[in-house]
Amino acid sequence: MDVIELQAILAKEQHHPHYLLQMLRLVQEKENYISPQVMSFFAEKLNIPLTKVQGVVDFYSLLNTTPRDYHILFSNNIIEQLQGKEQLMKQLMSKLGVELGKVRADNRVCIDNTSCIGMSDQGISVLVNGLTITNLDEQRISEMVDLIEKKIPVSQWNAQWFEVKDNIQRKDQLLSTDFIAGSVLDKMKNNTADQIMEILKVAGIRGCGGAGFPLDSKWDFCRQTPADERFVVCDADEGEPGTFKDRILFQSYADLVFEGMTICAKIIGAKQGFLYLRGEYRYLLDSLEKILEKRRDQNLLGTAILGDSNFDFEIKIFMGAGAYICGAETALIESLHGNRGVPRRRLPYPVHQGYNKKPTVVNNVETFCLAVKALQMGGETFAKLGTEQSHGTKLLSISGDCKKPGIYEFQYGVSVREVLESCGADISNIQMVQNSGPAGNSLSPEDFDRKIAFEDVSTTGSIMIFNKDKDLLEVIQNFANFFVHESCGFCTPCRVGTSIIKNLVNKVRKGRGSNVDLKEMQDLSILIRNAAHCGLGMTATNHISDTLKKFPQIYKERLHNSESLHPTFDLDAALEDARQITHRQDAAAHLSA
Amino acid sequence: MENIITIDEQMIPFKTGQTIMDAAMEAGVYIPHLCHNPEFEPHGSCRVCVVKVNGRMMSSCTTKATAGQKIENNTPELQENRRCLTQMLFVEGNHVCPGCEKSGNCQLQAVAYYTEMLSPRFQHFYPYRELDPTHPDVIIDFNRCILCELCVRASRDIDQKNIFAMSGRGIKAHLIINSPTGKLGDTDLNVNDKAVQVCPVGAIIKRKQGYMNPIGERFYDQAPIDEMGDIAEPHAGAKHHD
Ligand SMILES: Cc1cc2nc3c(=O)[nH]c(=O)nc-3n(C[C@H](O)[C@H](O)[C@H](O)COP(=O)(O)O)c2cc1C
Ligand code: SF4
Ligand code: SF4
Fold first, then answer.
1. DSSP 8-state code for residue A66
2. CA-to-CA distance for A505 and B171, rounded, in angstroms?
3. Which residues lie below 8 Å from residue A411, measured CB to CB, with a gap of 6+?
4. Which helix (H) or strand (E) holds A91?
5. Using an 8 Å Cβ cutoff, are B50 and A531 in contact?
6. CA atoms within 13 Å, Cβ hemisphere of B179
7. If you average pLDDT over residues A151-177, what whole number do you get?
8. What's the CATH code of the domain at B147?
9. Are residues B87 and B202 in the same domain?
10. Annotation: CATH topology of A471-593
11. Which of B75, B88, B57, B102 is closest to B197 using CA atoms?
12. CA angle B42-B46-B47, nearest 5°?
């Protein structure tokens, strides 16, 4: 990349060190890799240590450091894996003559895995040079090989391949909203912040990002913290495998999200907002920028919003670059500063010291939408939806073994069974439902009459269904691998413990485990949960402890010798190389079984 | 309420703003730790100092002391946790104590003794890591690095040189060096820099000193770590060393 282009990127991102990741992402988008020269350039121009740039590049999995023309990442969520992603990937690799994760000798192409890209309802999906292609099949694979060998740029590939459907299967209050951009801002125009907060308090909205924290308390804490500046952040990192609801909200309801952020800004007195959009959703960026531009034209963003001279607010879209941990709010804030996404200490909370150490509200995409919905329909009406402790509705992203994967909106209080019925799952045939992704909980048929609500089955909305014909240990292994890949590496229990867990699952899967290993998995699960620095580590072993408890047979039936310790190392298998070399397969060349 | 916390039944006073670790150190109560050094901003990454505060697990180096906290420290459950974390650090890197110059002066080894670690428990990872001998006075052996980031903090906050930084993610997280070649020899590191003094293990070592002090007469040969304190900076409650 030449200096003029790099200068342009610097200028576009205002020469601001906080936007280092944005600059690097732009280079990656243009060139598919970030060279040592580029890193040195930014280090020098931004006046930061070179190691800072290197550390950031090496943290985010969508950034590369070696050249290639085509960078293809297969989403390796368990849903795609069970649909045959591995076979398709192998086909593509063999046709192109590449090894997993290694750039072909001519620097043309590299194929690798990446964590769930939010397309579990769209068949087998990949990112090609950062753009999403869905519904891969053998036909598409063959054509792709052709395009790559003929050096056709991705921008000229079949546009149909890049279609991402909304796939809304069930609408309730939120998704059936007929929303005119600016209408709620206009409705609230003459209300004070206190008056708006009053409505939101009555509505009783709880955050949809996982913790269920009351929205009104969060916004109150933020606005009551003395400061000269405050910030609004929308967390659209949507990294939990199996969720894709934020994607739909941005595809078809983006104005609701931006309106929610703007209302929040009005209440807390923020002038700057950030939409932290996961890098995997790059395909949404241009349309979102257009919507922001339109809102500026309509005076719904910018200075003196709707003629109120005390109300200025801007939203910048900040792209992530492949890191599940950046969904965790303090890691997200670090990332917004252009840093590695390492979570901060628990205290102070972002509402007291967030972005730039100023009070900051971080909310999930859906939470902002619910705030607008509540203001539109009135606090009392909203509060009547759902259950006593969980007001409103919830978007569920359903995938796996069912007839109609997609987005389902239900009022809180719906039973798991009703949800499964509505998506056409064969209930008597279900083995396990994984709720809230790998970090969530594993439901067995005994849980199906429980209710989706914060007080019972609390959910981020990811619902993955596994029938009895599925190998649950394959599912568990996939989850364990996910946490190894996504641990930020800051603290010992999560950095090292997730790898040990992964190895133990692998050992049991291979038939070499014993009861001692199961006990070890159980003990480690508790230790990691107790000792981890942040929410990722605290939930990274839920799937292990849950399945050990609810599905012990999936482990037990694979145990080698259920009483004593059994070595991981298989001496006889290790001799295979020697047998091959010496062309021996006689009895003496084997250790007796 | 008075500024007092209770650690394992012992009443301990604290000053407003102090962490549980600060208060414990001042009172001479040992809470095992590796990434903490009272001269630097608390970090909270090794998790060895996790205690139970009113029933909840918290790292004592990053948790503020507040009046009335009931803290469990030296209990079988917490010692077991610490032993496990120490074992994790041992298997993650390549720690060959009998051949290590730092043996006897190493905090990781001392915490292992303190927590009665008798085996590695887990399979060794045997990662491939390099040794960087390019500096005339200092060697860095990444095999022994436990990612405590004390050298990072010291070089950034005290030496103002930013020589060390973190890179990678997850189990691939590792220390990198700020020079065009990535080698220590091409930095302006001085053997007297703070960053060279703070490493709790045998990752950053000064040349020509390794065996000046024979095994058997080293720091933690005198007494266990709960009596000796940190190797880098002796603190209140620990005996002095030079
Ligand atoms: C590892 C991890 C990943 C997370 N990912 C997300 C995410 O992708 N989106 C999100 O809104 N919240 C995520 N969260 C929760 C956020 O930290 C935070 O609680 C949430 O954004 C607050 O918004 P809410 O109050 O609207 O739920 C994550 C938390 C952890 C620990
Ligand atoms: S728990 Fe995991 S993700 Fe969180 S700080 Fe520790 S290593 Fe990083
Ligand atoms: S080199 Fe030493 S001080 Fe630096 S991070 Fe590694 S163990 Fe800590």
1. S
2. 17
3. A172, A173, A385, A386, A392, A393, A394
4. helix A85-96
5. yes
6. 14
7. 96
8. 3.30.70.20
9. yes
10. de novo design (two linked rop proteins) (1.20.1440)
11. B102
12. 90
Q: Strand pairing partners for A131?
A: A128
The whole-number pLDDT of residue B240 equals 36
Q: Does domain A70-162 match CATH 3.40.50.300?
A: no
Contacts of B62 in chain A (CB under 8 A): 345-346
The answer to whether the Cβ–Cβ distance between A489 and B168 falls below 8 Å is yes
- pTM over 0.80? The answer is yes
- Closest by Cβ to A530, choosing from B57, B123, B173: B57
Total Cβ atoms within 10 A of residue B222: 12
pLDDT at A423: 98
B-contacting residues of A 88-107, CB under 8 Å? none
Statement to judge: residues B138 and B51 lie in one domain: no
B97 neighbors B117 (Cβ within 8 angstroms): no
Nearest to A273 by CA among A263, A288, A284: A263
- Asked whether residue B178 is assigned to any structural domain, the reply reads yes
SS3 A248: helix
What percentage of chain A reaches a pLDDT higher than 70?
99
Q: Which residues of chain A make contact with B125, given a CB cutoff of 8 A?
A: 499
pLDDT tens sequence across B100-141: 999 999 999 999 999 999 999 999 999 999 999 999 999 999
Task: Provide the residue range defining the domain that includes B201.
Answer: 83-207
Distance B108 CA to ligand 2 centre (A): 21
The interface predicted TM-score of the complex, written ipTM, equals: 0.96
Average pLDDT of span A53-80: 98
Kindly write down the DSSP assignment for every residue of A541-587, as one continuous string. Answer: THHHHHHHHH-HHHHHTT-SBSSS---S--HHHHTHHHHHHHT--SG
CATH number for B69? 3.10.20.740
Question: Which residues in chain B have their CB less than 8 angstroms from residue A527's CB?
Answer: 81, 84-85
Q: Is residue B17 part of a domain?
A: yes
Asked whether A469 and A404 are in contact (CB, 8 A), the reply is: no
Clarify whether residues B87 and B183 are in a common domain. Answer: yes
In a domain, B191, yes or no: yes
Got the DSSP string for A377-443?
H-HHHHHTSB-SSSBSEEEEEEEESSS--EEEEEETT-BHHHHHHHTT--GGGEEEEEESSTTSEEE
Distance A492 CA to ligand 2 centre (A): 8
Which string of b and e fits A365-389 if b means at least 16 CB within 10 Å?
A: bbbbbbbbbbbbbebeebbebbbee
Given a contact cutoff of 8 angstroms between Cβ atoms, the answer to whether A364 and A207 are in contact is: yes
Does A534 sit in the ligand 2 pocket, CB within 6 Å? yes
Q: What value does the mean pLDDT take over residues A252-265?
A: 98
Interface test with A, best of B56, B124, B171, B188 (most A CBs within 10 A): B171
Q: Give the residue-averaged pLDDT of A140-146.
A: 97
Per the document, the length of chain A is: 593
Structure tokens at B171: 């189990």
So what CATH class is A169-383?
alpha beta
Instruction: Using a CB–CB cutoff of 8 Å, tell me whether A487 touches chain B.
Output: yes
Is A524 an interface residue toward B (CB < 8 Å)? yes
| pLDDT tens-digit series, residues A491-531 | 999 999 999 999 999 999 999 999 999 999 999 999 999 99
Q: Cα A125 to the chain's mean position, in Å?
A: 15
Name the residue of A206, A235, A277 to mutate for ligand 1: max ligand atoms within 8 A of Cβ.
A235
pLDDT tier, A577 (very low <50, low <70, confident <90, very high otherwise): confident
Domain boundaries, chain A: 3-59, 70-162, 169-383, 393-468, 471-593
Q: What mean pLDDT value characterizes chain A?
A: 96
Q: What angle do CA A203, A331, A496 make, to 5 degrees?
A: 125
Q: Is 90 exceeded by the pLDDT of residue A185? A: yes
pLDDT reading at B239 higher than 90:
no
